[in-house]
Amino acid sequence: MTDAFFQPISGMDLPRFAGIPTFMRLPHVPAGHPREGDVQIGLVGLPWDGGVSNRPGPRHAPRQLRDYSTMIRAQHPVTGLRPFEAANVADLGDVGPNPVDNPETLDRFARHFAGLKAKGIRPLSVGGDHLCTLPVLRGLAKDAPLGLVHFDAHTDLFPPYFGGKTLTHGNPFRAAVEEGLLDPKRMVQIGIRGTMYDSADVDFARAHGIRIVPIEEFFARGIAEVMAEAREIVGDRPAYLSYDIDFVDPSVAPGTGTPEWGGPNAFQAMQVVRECAGLDIVAADLVEVSPPYDQTGGTAWLGASLMFEILCVMVAALTAR
């Protein structure tokens, strides 16, 4: 039976431009809320970009995506899935970062997601830069490594920059593999492209058995074939889905810090997520939306649409158990 508390506010009841925005107009259920124990999938904001190496701005994404996600309606247009009736989904609010202390922020995030795991809540988080993914994995995958479906223009498998030890958005997945949070044999990275400093990231992937699908192969083989391979690699065990908005061509999604030409269009950007159907996606994120670089808001609107696509895959995985 549908739980009325977890139903989003309909645009038929309150205009979309009215009211206090939450992700997809869902109820706000902060820690300690009396209904927190009933949440099955929680939408979480991570407003932090202390890991960017060039252009900051993704710290502003959760707030803008909440606003733009008020346009999301109740039913998927292709599958007919009504996710808010199939699972209890809520906006859990933001995890407050310390914007001047990166290690403390990573610890805060990791503790928060460990707490969500203990409560049985599957998180869909919104960054923030891609370094946000690492503490999420630290909170969720300490007991057993997860598989990974990763859509991005970059591998994020680079060594720490400038010869130091500081982590950035360029190496969360390298760190996650080294810390045993991800199973490299169950990792696939799709859409990789752009100029390179060197091949250190590709060498790391090859050495650990990580599958990289460059954008040239992605277009040559087609979405259905590439994603069939991705599903085979990840298998039927628990997996994480990480979606960097710079996977999408910047003609469509210019609002990001490290754009790379030659990516998919908006329909293809959504289709790859739909092709994750059948995977046990237990957690996911959307990262690197940078509102200052797209005053039209188009990138955020695409980001909100991708959130809904990812949510539907997560709900299908949850209800298939």
Molecular structure report:
By secondary structure, the protein is an alpha/beta fold. The protein has a single domain, classed as 3-Layer(aba) Sandwich (Arginase, Chain A). 32% of the residues lie in helices and 16% in strands. The chain contains 10 helices and 8 strands. The protein has helices spanning 61-68, 83-86, 102-118, 133-140, 172-178, 200-208, 215-221, 223-234, 266-274, 298-319, and strands at residues 41-46, 89-94, 122-127, 146-151, 182-192, 211-214, 239-244, 281-287. An 8-stranded parallel β-sheet has the order 2-1-3-8-7-4-5-6, sandwiched between helices. Strand 5 (182-192), helix 6 and strand 6 (211-214) form a beta-alpha-beta unit. The protein is globular, with a radius of gyration of 18 Å. It starts with 40 loop residues before the first strand and ends with a helix.
In short:
The chain contains 10 helices and 8 strands. It has 321 residues and is an alpha/beta fold. It starts with 40 loop residues before the first strand and ends with a helix.
Task: Write a concise keyword list for the protein shown above.
single chain; 321 residues; alpha/beta; Arginase, Chain A; eight-stranded parallel sheet
